[in-house]
Write a structure and sequence with these properties.
By secondary structure, the protein is an alpha/beta fold. The protein is 50% helix and 11% strand. Helix 1 packs across helix 9, helix 2 runs parallel beside helix 3 and helix 7 runs parallel beside helix 9. The N and C termini lie close together (12 Å).
Length: 218
């Protein structure tokens, strides 16, 4: 199980195609339009942790190509001055100097015809950041992201298993949703590892197998 344990700690790279949409179809549409240049170029996504914000920001940068950059915000974040599309994740974590840097970078991007996709846990008006930066973040499109319900996650897991050619029982799905990491990337990676182990061991995917795999990770 050791190699399989390593496999599930490295989910596949986020893309628009492997994003489980749920109630976020509108968000996906806006981001595709922003990258294509046919929609609002400045977008702010907000939602609770696990709602898929990070996945979509990284997917947007991967889709945009070399002239784009993703930044996981922190107290001392810096922002690349050469890219035309910048994705800044969890802007509420920015320190004072980093807030000034993002404010200046926002203005430059607007002047250059670039774009910014930012994210946070709350709408711009509820962030405790400097006022001029909050104004900029609220100028563009502000969209709420919705976390997947357990029912939506269960359907996505069942469909992913079916696409790989095996059936996932309700008991296994319930166990995964209770004991495995809750983000869909990790859940899909767990299913892929279970599928490989099931084929190698010539055993069905069962709750004991899932328990064994998750214990090997822990």
């Amino acid at each position: 199980m050791r190699q399989l344990a390593l496999d599930i700690t490295s989910p596949p790279a986020p893309t628009f195609d492997n994003f489980v949409v749920g109630r976020n179809a509108e968000v996906l549409t806006h981001l595709r339009a922003a990258i294509a240049g046919s929609g609002e170029r400045f977008v702010y996504l907000w939602g609770e942790p696990g709602s898929g914000r990070t996945h979509l920001l990284k997917a947007a940068i991967a889709t945009a190509g070399a002239n784009a950059a993703y930044v996981a915000c922190g107290a001392n974040s810096v922002f690349d001055g050469d890219v035309l599309l910048l994705a800044t994740d969890d802007v509420e974590r920015l320190g004072a100097d980093a807030q000034v840097a993002l404010f200046n970078r926002y203005n430059t991007l607007r002047e250059q015809g670039g774009g910014l996709i930012a994210s946070g846990t709350v709408p711009p008006v509820q962030l405790t950041l400097r006022a001029d930066l909050l104004t900029r973040l609220g100028w563009g499109l502000v969209v709420q992201m919705h976390a997947l319900s357990d029912e939506e996650k269960a359907r996505a897991l069942a469909q992913h298993a079916q696409a790989r050619g095996f059936v996932l029982s309700d008991e296994v799905i319930a166990y995964l949703l209770t004991h495995a990491p809750r983000d869909m990337g990790a859940l899909f990676s767990t299913l892929d590892a279970l599928d490989r182990h099931s084929l190698e061991a010539k055993r069905a995917v069962t709750v004991p197998m899932v328990r064994e795999l998750l214990q090997s990770v822990l």
